[in-house]
Amino acid sequence: MAAVHLRIGDLVWGKLGRYPPWPGKIVSPPKDLKKPRGKKCHFVKFFGTEDHAWIKVEQLKPYHPHKEEMIKINKGKRFQQAVDAVEDFLKKAKGKEQDCKGDSKGKKAPSKPLKILEEDDEDLSALRDPSEKPVKDDPHFHHFLLSQSEKPASSMEPISKRLKIIEEVTGSTSIQAADSTAINGSITPTDKRIGFLGLGLMGSGIVSNLLKMGHVVTVWNRTAEKCDLFIQEGARLGRTPAEVASMCDITFSCVSDPKAARDLVLGPSGVLQGIRPGKCYIEMSTVDPETITELSQVITSRGGRFLEAPVAGSQQLSNDGMLVILAAGDRTVYEDCSSCFQAMGKTSFFLGEAGNAARMMLILNMVQGSFMATIAEGLTLAQATGQSQQTFLDILCQGQMASTFVDQKCQNILQGNFKPDYYLKHIQKDLRLAISMGDMANHPTPMAAAANEVYKRAKALDQSDNDISAVYRAYIH
């Protein structure tokens, strides 16, 4: 079969992460957005979403030749809305073409009709039939996904996630996404009513993916305006944490720190007031084991079922549904949440009794925070000794320490872009809690203690609400 050559303006089916092929359009990337090194890919705008991504050429198919095939194998309201958006716009474009022909009656027609397209409120400008040459491309996009370009190429077959249990020697269990060719191209959402409390950097992406995969979700956030976007996407609104817990079978919480987690449960109109026998409460916040023990006890004292499930990742991974979930507590709740965990993460682990997930998460974040501080230190030392920081990064990314994390965080520093993907104040909180956990276990944590002091200095320089890579500024001020 001859290779299909795609170009800017072509409509395509693009494979984004673990989701089924989705209709999109190849567009020009923003001028300041570099193409991934060594990747043959195109920058794609996906319809019915705000998602943009670099997609490998082998994960793209032309829209029109594969339209019937994709519609047959993919299901879901959001998918159909995306296809309808493409078709409606093409109809409008054809109508404008006919109007243009009518206006030019009596005049010599051009060899190929030009489409005169207008910007519209759905950001679907410059769509066209791929058989015709584009006359306009829209490079002005404000939201885009980058991590997809780092993922391995996968088949264009629809992907469904099924439960796969892996028993480990340690006794822990993981639920992982596994490829299949189920006809719906998606997971089967639980029929249980889901509640979600906290729509911050992590919570927003989690809720978005729960909705995309067909879950019925009721949301609440301390700042109510953050709920509006999700209500438009089909979520329901809860007026208080207690109301959400009362209305829903399973309620998730993802907030900033131990105090916020306790207040959400124990405070006025808190979750505890809505807990009834059989109701499930899942704490996804990164907190200390003592807070988890306290929350577990009060929830179960009312007949509720408790699970902790903190997540390892970032805002970008949350948006992509590629988090790693660490769970502990009631094993039956863990199993009841399998479709939720598959929607929000690439894998999840069950670690036994409540408190174990908090311990593991603090250790992971302690390592990540210390590593980030070391990277920043290396960049500043390179500069101080007259070495090129970019060359340092290029060498680093060719060696054994190469990773998306290293590349992205170093690029943040070199570009002076510290838009939060994971708040600096939160990694410092996690370092502090990990050091305290080490003290209680009578185990030394000298590296974490040193890194913690660097983050404390960065906070003193007003970097709390920036990305963790802003720890760099602690070394240059």
TrEMBL record:
Location(s), subcellular: Chromosome; Nucleus
InterPro entries: 6-PGluconate_DH-like_C_sf, 6PGD_dom2, 6PGDH_NADP-bd, GLYR1_PWWP, HIBADH-like_NADP-bd, HIBADH-related_NP60_sf, NAD(P)-bd_dom_sf, PWWP_dom
Region (Disordered): 94-139
GO cellular component terms given for this protein: chromosome; nucleus
Residue ranges of every copy of the PWWP domain listed in the record: 8-66
Biased composition regions of type Basic and acidic residues, renumbered to the chain: 94-106, 125-139
Classification via CDD domains: PWWP_GLYR1
Gene Ontology MF terms: chromatin binding; DNA binding; NAD binding; NADP binding
Pfam families: NAD_binding_11 (PF14833), NAD_binding_2 (PF03446), PWWP (PF00855)
Keywords: Chromosome, Nucleus
Origin: domain of life: Eukaryota
Family: Belongs to the HIBADH-related family. NP60 subfamily.
Protein name, UniProt field: Cytokine-like nuclear factor N-PAC
